[in-house]
Amino acid sequence: MMSLFERLGNRLINAVGNMLYALGYTAFVLKSSLSFLQKRNDAFRVMVMQILFTGVEALSVISVLSLGIGAMIIIQGVSLLPQFGQGDLVYPILITVITRELGPILTAFIVTARSGTAMATEIGGMVVSHEIEAYMSFGIDPISYIVVPRFLGAIISVVFLNIYFNIFGLLGSYFVTVIIHPIPFLEYFHNLLLNLRPQDIIASFVKSGVFGAIIALVGTYSGFQVNRSTTEIPQVAIKAVGKGFVYCIIADAAITLVYYL
Question: Is the pTM of this model over 0.90?
Fold first, then answer.
């Protein structure tokens, strides 16, 4: 019978082994992505399909979310801040909350819930049906053909969805707000541009790119964790969503910390 220390030691060894394997997987995907960009191949169509699913089909959800949050911030801001003599702060708050914080992270959450799950489920199904083995038997690298197009497609999709979230959240919400609290459009637009700094845009782009990479890596890596049974597929899909949320939040905190250094 194993002692407590032996069990803890085994768990530690397994955890370190899994972490090193995941780091090796990440490095291999990054290396294969460079090769993918240098020579266009058949997997390009897979990347386009990934962008359509992850980016285009998520536009309706992003529209509703960005419109609601943008309108809520403006309504609360123009109602409360003037009472404290800080009415002008509504614009920096809008830029900070929508562009730098909520835009990238909420977009990442939506993509994790939709596409992260789909990637883990699809690849898990390929493992169970021996499709991965079939690819390898024909000399096709599963990382280059299956993972890299999804990895690049997710990054491109999250970046563009984030841009869409910002535009829709900052400008679209104006037309909702004006019904309740009229604000001159030129004044609103001018004050937004006045408070939008290059570092805000860079931070937003960096976050969305990193989040896209995390979602794809976690989703595809989780799919390969399926061994032989179809009952494992929903389990790894659920774990992929949980891990995707956690890693995105950690990355968000780290990038925000660097921003303020």
Answer: no
